[in-house]
Amino acid sequence: MKIKIAPSILGIDYGRLNEHLAELAPYVDYFHVDVMDGNFVDNLTLGAPVIKWINTDVPLDVHLMINNPHKYIKDFAEAGAYSITIHAEASKHLSDDIQKIKDAGCKAAVSLNPDTPIDKISKVLPMLDMVLVMSVHPGFGGQTFMPEVLEKVKWLREHYPNLDIQIDGGINDETGQLAVKAGANVLVAGSYILKNQDPIKAIEKLRALKEYM
Ligand code: DX5
Ligand code: ZN
């Protein structure tokens, strides 16, 4: 299994978004796009009309931190999402919403907040391409990694050896190592990459965690 690196673009300079993404593009597997609605989380970011203007060959991994995600899945698919992640806590009909993502031609993922148990998604797990285990309470970049969520990662890896397991929140080369040891293979990192003096070196350090798989 390969380690996949997904820089979160939450903290990027949106004034030169495409230029900045072009610099990182050769080194990454996905760009992680954080969509927040000021309702499911206390922060407001961007929506499909902006994502449409992202110009890159790197697949866009769209993390929807929004209520009623079913209303907007088609918009994000049409805006160019490769994968769409909805929150288990935000979806009223999880399996219907997952099916909607697949029908729109995207890979389907569900995210769990730090306090949400795996039981919440056990019925839909076989439908999923990826599970996102949040390692901070969603809403903001730059928060501290919560190691207690690694129990969920371990359980998922034991029961689903081929599933993409993504971890998001407070990831750097040290916390990333813990996550990879627990079984995560898709690493989202915002501050660690974008605020680094040398973002490409940061990406390479995360990729080197493969030895802990
Ligand atoms: C938090 C977002 C994350 C965030 C990660 O709600 O989902 O993707 O941008 O940022 P860092 O890596 O700084 O914790
Ligand atoms: Zn995210």
Description:
- By secondary structure, the chain is of the alpha/beta class.
- It has one domain: Aldolase class I (TIM Barrel, Alpha-Beta Barrel).
- Helices cover 29% and strands 20% of the residues.
- It is built from eight helices and eight strands.
- It has helices at 17-24, 48-51, 73-78, 94-103, 150-159, 173-182, 191-194, 199-207, and strands at residues 4-7, 31-36, 60-65, 81-87, 107-112, 130-134, 164-168, 186-189.
- An eight-stranded parallel sheet has the order 1-8-7-6-5-4-3-2.
- The longest helix is centred in the middle third of the chain and has 10 residues, at 94-103.
- The chain binds D-xylitol-5-phosphate and zinc ion (ZN).
- D-xylitol-5-phosphate binds at residues 8, 10, 32, 34, 63, 136, 138-139, 141-143, 168-171, 188-192.
Query: What small molecules does this complex bind?
Result: D-xylitol-5-phosphate, zinc ion
Residues in helices, as a percent range: 25-40%
How many beta-strand elements?
Answer: 8
CATH topology: TIM Barrel
Count of domain modules? 1
Alpha-beta content class: alpha/beta
Looking at CATH, the homologous superfamily is: Aldolase class I
Looking across the biggest beta sheet, what order are the strands in?
1-8-7-6-5-4-3-2
Q: What is the rounded Rg?
A: 16 Å
**Percentage of residues in strands:** 15-25%
Report the mean per-residue pLDDT as an integer. Answer: 98
Structural topology:
Blueprint: E1 4-7, H1 17-24, E2 31-36, H2 48-51, E3 60-65, H3 73-78, E4 81-87, H4 94-103, E5 107-112, E6 130-134, H5 150-159, E7 164-168, H6 173-182, E8 186-189, H7 191-194, H8 199-207
Parallel strand pairs: 1-8, 2-3, 3-4, 4-5, 5-6, 6-7, 7-8
